[in-house]
Amino acid sequence: MKKCLLLACLFGLIGLFHPAAAQQIPSQDIMLSQYEYPFPVKFISVHAQGQVLSMAYMDVLPAKPNGKTILLLHGKNFNGAYWDSTAAALRDAGYRVVMPDQIGFGKSSKPAHFQYSFQQLALNTKALLDTIGVKKTAVLGHSMGGMLAARFALMFPGTTEKLILENPIGLEDWKTMVPYMSIDQWYKGELAQNYQEIKAYQLNSYYAGHWSPAYEKWASLLASWITAKEYPLVAWNSALTYDMIFTQPVVYEFKDIRVPTLLIIGQRDRTALGKALVSAEVRAKMGNYPELGKKTAKAIPGAKLVPLDNVGHLPHIEAFSRFIEPLKKFLAQ
To answer: What range(s) does the AB hydrolase-1 domain occupy (predicted)?
Structure first.
C-alpha cells in the first residue's frame, strides 16, 4: 500500500483515500487495441531517434466545413479519446478536429528507448499535420498538453493561428521548489499503480472531492492495462514523461508567445508535482491555479483569461457547457 500511495502523495494527495472494493475493469493491452475510440483511428509512421514509431490520431471532418482546423493535445493521464464531447461540438460548428495520441500514450507506440522532450513531441505533431495537409490550425492543450501546446506555438508560430490553454500544468517551475525525483523513483511508483490509487489521486487533485460517472471511464481506462504483461513498458514511458515535465519548464518563455491566446482555468485545481516532498509552507503555495492563471495571462502578450469557479482540473469533462462556449467564441473571433 505504501508503494501504491507514493505517486499520489507526490502530487499532493492528502487523505480522502477510498478503500472501496476493486472495480472489475476489463484488461487492455498496452496499445489499447480492443478499446474503441469515439472516432475512427488512423496511424502515421514517425521517424525519430533512429527508430520508426507508430502515432495514432483521429481526424474528424465536419459536414459543413468553415475552413478552420483545431488540434487537441491530451494530458499526461489521458489520450485523445477524452476529447469526445469537445470534438463533436467543434465538428458540428464546422471545424476540422485533429486529436493525436502522443508517442508513449494511448494507441501510439511505447518505445523501450526514447528521449522525451516537448520539442520532440512538437516535431512529431508537426509531422502529423504535414502528413494530413494541415498548414494552419488553432492549438488547444490540456494539462501536460498545455505545456506541449505552448512549446508548439513557440516552435511553429506560422502554423499556430490561436492557442488555448486549459488548466495547463507547468505554470510554475517545480524544480525550483521540489527536490529532484529520479526516473527510477517515478518508475517504481508507476509499477505500483492500481485503480484505487488512480481514483483517489484524481478525486483529490483533479476534482477536490467531486466525482461523477463522467470521470469513471477515464480512471478505469488508465487502470485497464496495469495487468498487461507489457505494462512495465508503459510504466517506463510514463516515468520518462514525468521527468520531461519536471525538467523542461516552458514558463520562462510565455513572454515570447506571439499568437492570440486564451486561458481557461478551473479555479478549484491544485495540481502540482512533488507537494509531499516540501514543507507545509511551500506546499501551500504550489498549484494555486487562481493566482497562476492571472500571472500567466499577464506573461503572455494579449492573453485572455476565463476563470471557471468551482471547477477542477478537467473543465471540458466536469463543466462542458461552461468550457465550450468561451472556446467557440474565441475561435470565431
So the answer is: 69-271
- Measure the CA–CA gap between 77 and 28, rounded to whole angstroms: 16
pLDDT of residue 16: 30
Contacting residues for 252 by C-beta, under 8 A, at least 6 apart = 173
Would you say 181 and 10 are in contact if contact means Cβ atoms under 8 Å apart? yes
Name the packing angle between helices 2-10 and 183-191 (round to 10°).
120
Nearest Cα residue to 320 out of 224, 212, 223, 221: 212
DSSP sequence for 169-187: S-SS-GGGTSPPPPHHHHH
Phi, psi of 110 (to 5 degrees): -115, 85
Q: What is the CATH number of the domain that holds 281?
A: 3.40.50.1820
| E-assigned strand segments in 3-80 | 41-48, 51-60, 69-73
Q: Alpha-carbon distance 146 to 167, whole Å?
A: 7
Using alpha carbons, select from 183, 48, 71, 43 the residue that is nearest to residue 121.
Answer: 48
CA–CA distance, 144 with 267 (Å, rounded to integer): 17
Q: What is the pLDDT of residue 43?
A: 98
Residue 172 lies in domain: 2-332
Q: Tell me if residue 287 falls in helix, strand or coil.
A: coil
Ranges 2-11, 90-99, 113-122: which has the least confidence: 2-11
The 3-state DSSP class for residue 69 equals strand
Between CA 285 and CA 127 the distance in angstroms is: 39
Order of strands, edge to edge, in the sheet holding 41-48? 41-48, 51-60, 96-100, 69-73, 137-142, 160-166, 261-266, 304-308
- Do 141 and 83 touch, CB atoms closer than 8 A? no
Domain count for the chain, please give it: 1
Q: Which helix (H) or strand (E) holds 289?
A: helix 289-299
Three cell numbers written together for 34 = 480492443
Please tell me which residue, 88 or 218, carries the higher pLDDT value: 88
pLDDT at res. 84:
98
Q: Does pTM surpass 0.70? A: yes
Residue 264 in this model has a pLDDT that exceeds 90: yes
